Amino acid sequence: MENNRESFKSKFGVIAAAAGSAIGLGNIYRFPCVVGENGGSAFFIIYLIIVLFLGLPLIVSEFVIGRRAQKSPVGAFKKLAPDKKGWSLIGYIGVIGAFLILSFYTTVAAWTLDSVYRALTNAYDGKDLATIQTDFNGLLNNTWRTIIFEAIFMFITAYIIIRGIEKGIEKYSKILMPVLFVILIVLCVKSVTLPGAGDGLSFFLKPDFSKITGRVIVQALGQAFFSLSIGMGVLITYGSYIAKNDNLASSSLMVALFDTLIATLAGIIIFPAAFSFGIKPEAGASLAFTTLPMIFQQMNGGYFFCLIFFILLAIAALTSSISLLEAPVAYFKDELKMSRKKATIITAVLVFGLCIISGLSLQDDSPLKLFGMSIFNALDAFTANILMTVGGLLTVIFLGWKVRKSDFNDEFTNGGSVNMKLKNIFYFIIKFIAPLAIATILVSQLLK
Ligand code: PHE
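Above: inputs. Below: predicted complex with phenylalanine.
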């Protein structure tokens, strides 16, 4: 039966699906937000280093594990190390992580839908920065408006999972994401030619090594894992669908490259414009949602660009959220023997409950706090900076130390036909460098 596991027809299929999971609000909203809060270029350099030396090997690791085991996370760990049951813990981290991430991701997706609505009704037209900022703040404090958009997004995500039409969505996003890419390029050109844009560009791109601190490294690690969708087993599931003759290293590279390219474009768009309009780079959650409408206002055809952009951003968020919801649903379905529909409805309702709380926690004077921060920020920091990094750490230790080296070699080289040279470099990073580096960063965070 296992040999009949459905696999992606084309090489582009798996890259599109994994990139669909990776590219989302993490690139356009969260990346500029953490870059801005962590001093700009210093963060960006560390981020790039982490993507290359830790992110890429981790994508490879998850693909190798998934394709070798031909199973989704919980089952994959059980299968590859049958005598050591404890490793399926990584699968559970994925299930819990997906649940928690969805709870704040849906809130940000709700802001995206709100922006679609504003774009459609031409509500940004002629407004100055102060008004756009007040409007965004008004949204955060408007309980019903937030809940309604959260509900719409959650409903669409759940509907797609219940009907099992993720593949259909991926087919559309193969066409739509290149369109998003083109709009991002247009926005880049507009943004860097705004008056005073140069300061924003240097903030983002001109290296200033003095700003590198422990906090910057921790945040960069968390952002890289979040943006690449690693450390939670999401890519293990996709790996199990990759055809046997597909080149895992080059597919992984494509995913990392696309994801990083989109984040970089987002930075080149947001910072020059933010500096030009007088928006503080450390503005946090509102950074992208106030800067972008301001840019569209200055453009010819701004109404259409703005509308199409936010619709595409919502779709990018959707391809990420379905990859997230799939994890707990698959678990409930496989391990607790629930029907797909029941599993989805239960998860979606639970997520929605927590998502309402995360949304409300951002209101002025909200008492919904955890460890001195809003529940929204606590969920965000806990999942990206701790849960996903621990998940990633366990994944590389598992592959480097528990799975037979011959299994790794066989899978990485497609039975000895490709990537013979790269094999040893990746294995060395996965076995030694990545566990050490991730553990050091994690421990330094705990000792703070
Ligand atoms: N990578 C997605 C984004 O950047 C979010 C995500 C995280 C998706 C973890 C799946 C798993 O928006």
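The chain has a mean pLDDT of 93.
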